[in-house]
Amino acid sequence: MPHSEPVLEIQTGDGHRFELVDIAPQAPKRTLLLLPGMGISARHYIGLARLLAESGTRVLIHEWRGNGSSSRRAGKRHRQGDWGYRELIECDLAAAQQTAVEHNRGRPVWLGGHSLGAQLAALAAARKPADSAGLVLIAGGTPAIRAFPRPLRWLLVALFVTAPPLSRFLGHFPGRALKFAGTEAHGVMRDWAQTGRTGRYDLETLDFPAEAALERLALPVLTVRMAEDAFVPVASLRRLTAKLPGCSIEDQVVSSEEQGARADHFRWLSDPGPTARRIANWLDQAPVDPPG
Questions:
Q1: Is residue 77 very low, low, confident or very high in pLDDT (cuts 50, 70, 90)?
Q2: For position 131, which CATH number holds?
Q3: Structural domains in the chain (count)
Q4: Residue 73, Cβ neighbours under 10 Å: how many?
Q5: Residue 186 pLDDT more than 90?
Q6: Model confidence pTM above 0.85
Q7: Is the pLDDT of residue 289 over 80?
Q8: Which of 8, 49, 64, 157 has its CA 20 to 30 A from that of 17?
Q9: What domain range includes position 58?
């Protein structure tokens, strides 16, 4: 589904092309690079971005490789149809961060993310902390098996065991058919499953020691948890924030009463007002970018 918002065109070193949706007020106080959840296109976050722009935040919505405006698609039928966290972080996010910083007059930008986007936002900030002003983690936590209660734990175990070989065999993970995530690359599912089994982000393919870098990170962090989020229970969030001992962390919870519906992992996107208010109020306590 197309949208009519302005975009910034990005091309990475490996030839991947995609767009950042650019939603900005007339006089932005700050810039937030927003990372979607697994299998979710950038356009689904436009409502949240418009509300944040009303409070003075310029929002650049990232597009994951394989989704929406991306020039790549996962699968054996597509040339260069496989990738993992390395390409998402070191190619795509690095290029998006560089563009965001350039458009912010060379100053660090805030990194925000939903679900898997929250995890990768933390990793991107840890990889290059000088480009990041702070983190906004929405419905984010680690997929570590022990963070989940039964029976969801057993469902995740099954996914961690079956998703990598299934996606290797098919050339992609058929998430839409299975009603979990989207059509994902084999490498993404391989890396996601490894972090779930081990609870750690030290992947051999990454060009930096992820766990050590997270531990050294010292940034302000806001977490926004949905009160009835089965995909990110409290223990999952705690396992992620425990990896950030040097960060100043504020935790907030959106209740179902505040949401006006079940406050779960995805439903908040259809009415992002409560989440936007919490993010805007927290960001307003942060330093305002000086005029360039």
A1: confident
A2: 3.40.50.1820
A3: 1
A4: 16
A5: yes
A6: yes
A7: no
A8: 49
A9: 7-142+209-283
Question: What order do you get walking across the sheet with 132-138 strand by strand?
Answer: 7-11, 17-23, 57-61, 30-35, 109-114, 132-138, 220-226, 248-254
CB neighbourhood size of 270 (10 A): 10
Residue 292 in any domain: the answer is no
| Spatial separation of the C-alpha atoms in residues 234 and 228, rounded to whole Å | 10
Pairing type for strands 57-61 and 17-23 reads antiparallel
pLDDT tens, residue by residue, 159-171: 999 999 999 999 9
- pLDDT tops 50 at residue 176: yes
The SS3 call for residue 190 is helix
Task: Examine residue 203 and state whether it is found in any structural domain, yes or no.
Answer: no
Q: Say if 189 falls within a structural domain.
A: no
**Which token pair is 141?**
């936590």
Distance in angstroms (rounded) separating the CA atoms of residues 184 and 84 = 10
- 71, with CB counted inside 10 A (0-12, 13-18, 19+), is middle
| DSSP letters for 211-238 | HHHHHH---EEEEEEETT-SSS-HHHHH
Q: pLDDT tens for residues 192-223? A: 999 999 999 999 999 999 999 999 999 999 99
Across all residues in the chain, what is the average pLDDT? 95
Q: Are the C-beta atoms of 36 and 45 separated by less than 8 Å?
A: yes
Residue type, 170: L
- Phi/psi of residue 121, each to 5°? -65, -45
**Does the pLDDT of residue 158 top 70, yes or no?**
yes
How confident is the model at residue 286, as a pLDDT?
79
Residues 6+ apart with CB under 8 A from 241: 221, 223, 247, 249, 251
